[in-house]
Amino acid sequence: MPPLPTDKPRSARWGAVLWPAFLGAALADAVLFTLIDPAQVHWLEGRLHLSPLMAYTVGFFGFWLLIAASSWLSLWLHESPSGEPPSPRSPRN
Amino acid sequence: MGSSAAESKVIELYKAAPKIYPKSVSGRFARLRVFTLLVTQLVFYGLAWLQWNGRQAVLFDLVERKFYIFGWIFWPQDVLYLAFILIISAYSLFFVTAIAGRVFCGYACPQTVYTEIFMWVERWFEGDRAARMKLDRGPWTREKLWRKGGKHAVWILMALWTGFTFVGYFTPIRDLAVKVTTLSTGPWETFWILFYGFATWGNAGFMREQVCKYMCPYARFQSVMFDRDTMIVTYDAARGEPRGSRKKGVDPASAGLGACVDCSLCVQVCPTGIDIRNGLQYECIGCAACIDVCDSVMDKLNYPRGLVRYATENAIEKQWGWREVRAHILRPRIMIYGVVLVLLVGGLLSSLVLRNPLKVDVIRDARVLAREVEGQWIENVYRLNVMNASEAAHRLRVSVEGIDGARLDRGGLIAVDAASNASGTVAVRVPVGALSPGTHPLQLIIESEAGGAPLAVREKSTFMVPR
After folding, report:
1. Smallest CA–CA separation between A38 and chain B, in Å?
2. In terms of residue numbers, what domain contains B386?
């Protein structure tokens, strides 16, 4: 379903999704690695080795992806036309 | 539906973002911006190189998990201070915004600052507004190639330097510089330099005002902080209207005109592409470029300056002078913001001053729980993580309190260097039969031995007696 027409350029939509998610990811990454020292963690029970900088980076981009997906979903739900949902009991003519 | 079968219409879902070509401007506020820009960038690019007690003065060492801000050393456990600083920054922004509008946007926001610097480079290679528009319209010639290419080359160099400096706040910058010159930076350092550089290049070179218009939350909630006594960049419509062109020397009153000559320069210089004469708009970043350019036009016409000026809504409406505007600065909103700000700053400073530079985490050793030794003692083992935020090395003596007959069996001394951490293990023993089975509160006291300022920390833990 396409979004509704808007007076904003397409980049505004990308910005609205990516930028708040970027801020959220920075905060989440900071909080997570304040509580957890990546050097002390056995990732995947020791099968995966992550250097601290890699752990911070992977954490940041993981959060960014996750929060951006959530932001995008919110935006998409909000922008989708909210017509009558099709109902099997009352078929349209 | 059947009747309108052939009708169809293309609906554009998005408006195209027109490229904005701000005209360069000179004047009081442009000079002020150059000044604030130099100061903020001197701090950003310079501070990373400053040394303090033989180490980088400001460094958030992510690998060592230690944060240095001049004489202060923080560990991740001190994250509360970071929260404090963020809250103070937010309140400072509210306070300043309520008084003076979006001065942060106009003079200090990195988005504005980097856009401005990038525009200097752009102007140097491609000329001012008209020349840039002509160049963009024209075909790709050798000259266009070198002008565009040169601009991007300088932009990319500046962006990379910015990325390098950014990473230099999280990993020691002098080591990083050596690694960069020998092309031996680690993969993640390289990644972050390139990523931050790319973001700088994209934001300051291309996104520009769109970041302020569509991405910045502050622009949207500014109306919450504004009131009718907030200083904003405004057009004095009562004086300016009706606008219109006129011959030089014509008295506007006799021609039935206001002071605005409708030269549209205020629109041409605007970095967000708005017309300030339409009133306060959320796109306005308070950069005052329109004030500077309008003042220059007023000077040429021998009209008084300030047709576009910093003023409050009340001042424009009631024709107030500076005295009345100043008298309205102190109002309940400002006083509340001010008091909260003073309390927060006071709280942070006193907590920093009174902070015990010694911090100890006591962790009961999970592998070696309580056990009976030599048939006469119950022993519990504790791991101590000591963080020394002072500039002196310490030898720390551990003792135990709270349980009669408890004594330290081994590990009573821990040495910790200046501004670093150390860990040690201590074993506490209690005679068999002295305590009932179960857990009992106990305190571990960690004190510095003679020499230097005495430090002491008392940590609670528990002693466990098995059944």
Report:
1. 9
2. 358-465
